[in-house]
Amino acid sequence: MTSLLMCLCCVLLELMAVHSRVLMQSRIVGGHTAAPNSIRYLVSLKSTSGQHFCGGSLVHRYWVLTAAHCNIGAEQMMIVAGDYKVNIFEGTEQYAKPRILVIHPLYNRSTNNADIMLIKLRAPMVLNKYVSLAPLPRQGTGVAEGHVCRVSGWGYNSLEGGQVPVTLRTVTVPIVSTARCNSSDSFNGNITANMICAGYSTGGKDACKGDSGGPLVCDRRIYGVVSWGNGCGDAKFPGVYTAVSRFRRWIDQTIYGSYLRCFKPWR
Ligand SMILES: *[C@@H]1O[C@H](CO)[C@@H](O)[C@H](O)[C@H]1NC(C)=O
Ligand SMILES: *[C@@H]1O[C@H](CO)[C@@H](O)[C@H](O)[C@H]1NC(C)=O
Ligand SMILES: *[C@@H]1O[C@H](CO)[C@@H](O)[C@H](O)[C@H]1NC(C)=O
């Protein structure tokens, strides 16, 4: 009995650790509602009970890009594309279960380094008016400080209960230099080369809990994956994103490398 309870506790703690963002506000902070199906590559990661817990981006009909800390186990997950109001069936949704989760080998849950994961779906999503593929940046490309990008998500807080329709929200945030983000005035040495920061020096606009795994889009490409922070919309602490351009090669190798391996016997 004790061990079962302890085990349940562990599972709860694990689930709480999954949301590395501090609980302050529950949605995209300071943004506005997105137009219906305007961000067609955005997917919702839901638990098998239907709770939205993370965002993601469809990068291939079979593959979703998200954060490694969104890993709650393939068996516990459902991927929903074509969603707008996250807890209402609108007829535009497509559902797929994960086949495999590929967590980046350098992912470190205590430092949040390499917080990136690819999910291979059991069945491909169908591309249509509501579902599209996300364009990725080239390996090693950067975004200049001050460049304004856009982060979107459902930022759904499971503690609020599942009854109210939760509509997709979006907000623009400028890139903050790594030097400033990593300074003693901010994250004080905790920013690695695999992270980029974005937020206003006045705070007030940010991603938040439940937006994790979702896209930070600059010049129409997914340069960031919502990863972590210190509170949400705090002037001193911008949002921290996984720098997708550092992982472009890994993404391609993961997605296309497996196909190449599959075809090998034919050569
Ligand atoms: C994660 O990073 C910490 C701090 O650098 C290090 O001590 C630890 O060994 C790392 N863990 C893994 C699993 O790499
Ligand atoms: C930086 O990381 C250290 C060690 O993980 C932690 O104690 C500290 O609070 C962090 N500081 C900030 C500003 O994130
Ligand atoms: C952030 O600061 C720490 C401590 O000074 C340093 O080790 C690390 O390399 C810095 N990160 C980047 C991306 O420069």
Automatic annotation (TrEMBL):
<dbReference type="InterPro" id="IPR050127">
    <property type="entry name" value="Serine_Proteases_S1"/>
</dbReference>
<keyword id="KW-0645">Protease</keyword>
<keyword id="KW-0720">Serine protease</keyword>
<dbReference type="Pfam" id="PF00089">
    <property type="entry name" value="Trypsin"/>
</dbReference>
<feature type="domain" description="Peptidase S1">
    <location>
        <begin position="28"/>
        <end position="256"/>
    </location>
</feature>
<keyword id="KW-0378">Hydrolase</keyword>
<dbReference type="InterPro" id="IPR033116">
    <property type="entry name" value="TRYPSIN_SER"/>
</dbReference>
<dbReference type="InterPro" id="IPR009003">
    <property type="entry name" value="Peptidase_S1_PA"/>
</dbReference>
<protein>
    <recommendedName>
        <fullName>trypsin</fullName>
        <ecNumber>3.4.21.4</ecNumber>
    </recommendedName>
</protein>
<dbReference type="GO" id="GO:0005615">
    <property type="term" value="C:extracellular space"/>
</dbReference>
<dbReference type="InterPro" id="IPR001254">
    <property type="entry name" value="Trypsin_dom"/>
</dbReference>
<keyword id="KW-1015">Disulfide bond</keyword>
<feature type="signal peptide">
    <location>
        <begin position="1"/>
        <end position="20"/>
    </location>
</feature>
<keyword id="KW-0732">Signal</keyword>
<dbReference type="InterPro" id="IPR001314">
    <property type="entry name" value="Peptidase_S1A"/>
</dbReference>
<dbReference type="GO" id="GO:0006508">
    <property type="term" value="P:proteolysis"/>
</dbReference>
<dbReference type="InterPro" id="IPR018114">
    <property type="entry name" value="TRYPSIN_HIS"/>
</dbReference>
<dbReference type="GO" id="GO:0004252">
    <property type="term" value="F:serine-type endopeptidase activity"/>
</dbReference>
<dbReference type="InterPro" id="IPR043504">
    <property type="entry name" value="Peptidase_S1_PA_chymotrypsin"/>
</dbReference>
